[in-house]
Amino acid sequence: MIEDTETIDEFLARRLTDVEEAVRKAAAAEIMPRFRRLAAHEVDQKSGPHDLVTDADRKAELYLTEALTELLPGSVVVGEEAVHANPASYEAIRGEAPVWIVDPVDGTRQFVHGNDGFCTMVALAEGGVVQASWIYAPALDRIAVAVRGRGAALDGEPLRAGSPVPGDDLRVAMSHPDYTTEEQKRDLLSLCTEGVAARPCGSAGLEYLAIARGELDATAFSWEAAWDHAAGLLLVEESGGTHLTRAGEPFRITGSNALPFTAARDEATARRVAGLLSGGA
Predict the structure, then answer these.
(1) Residue 45 in 3-state DSSP?
(2) What's the pLDDT score for residue 4?
């Protein structure tokens, strides 16, 4: 149990692997038994036909909510499904208590269709700053962990994003058209230009991992729900990358960002993509 005087850094030094174990257990108990075995009644729509939720999402989030708050007494959870049920609960991100930001199944559409491109994301933030993150792809059994100031690793091996190859087209994953408004589509059209190879994104968490591994140069996202970005942005930062909004400022998990925004392998790439998104050359 955490002591009253223990800092988040001290907690992470003691319990980092315990959080990883909780994430793995949630996936083993609630997600993987339903993978490629979902019944029709276990899949629902939220805001529309492209916004799906399953029993795996709901039950994995409940599992993690109990496990994570037990590990860190006094902490709170902001989870995608709980916020859908009670939007006011999102405000905890701006509160004083340590907050776990949870996306139980990122890439639900892929999960529903039996594709292994989904993951579970957990981030621990305090004062609006992400201090640690876990991205677990259970169908692939791969986990990426980042701790602020201590680097990032995939399955225990250090991650370094590096820089794009000079002269090559930038590989950019951008908000999927199914999830964007007409105005957002117009904003993202700026990436349809010479020197940029843009494509729709899959699971946001796995796209962030691709940047941290140097397999993708940048993202361009038009929404700011913290559960989709908090874990991945820290992973990118700790692997040597960065992130900027179209206003040229770092993305804030507390909101009020100038959208779209980008995460990229290095600062030069981030500035190039952010410049395009803001209407620059």
Answers:
(1) strand
(2) 58
Which pLDDT score, from 0 to 100, does residue 1 have? 35
Q: Using CA atoms, how far apart are residues 88 and 148, in angstroms rounded to an integer? A: 28
The whole-angstrom separation of Cα 253 and Cα 191 is 24
Q: Which amino acid is at 232?
A: G
What span, in angstroms and rounded, lies between the C-alpha atoms of 175 and 132?
25
> Which amino acid, residue 109?
R
Contact 194, 272 (CB under 8 A): no
Instruction: Check whether 180 has a pLDDT greater than 90.
Output: no
Residue 3: what are its φ and ψ, rounded to 5°? Answer: -80, 155
Residue showing tokens 């708050």: 69
Question: 259 is written with which tokens?
Answer: 């959208």
pLDDT tier at 40, thresholds 50, 70, 90: confident
Tell me how far apart the alpha carbons of residues 224 and 59 are, in angstroms, rounded to a whole number: 24
Question: Could you tell me the pTM of the whole model?
Answer: 0.94
Q: Which residues face 45 on adjacent strands?
A: 52
Domains defined along the chain, listed by start: 8-158 (3.30.540.10), 170-277 (3.40.190.80)
Q: From residue 212, how far is each of 43, 99, 240 by CA, in Å?
A: 32, 24, 8
Instruction: Confirm or deny that 116 is annotated as ligand binding.
Output: no
The band of 5, judged by pLDDT with boundaries at 50, 70 and 90, is: low
Residue 80 annotated as binding site: yes
Predicted pLDDT at 48: 63
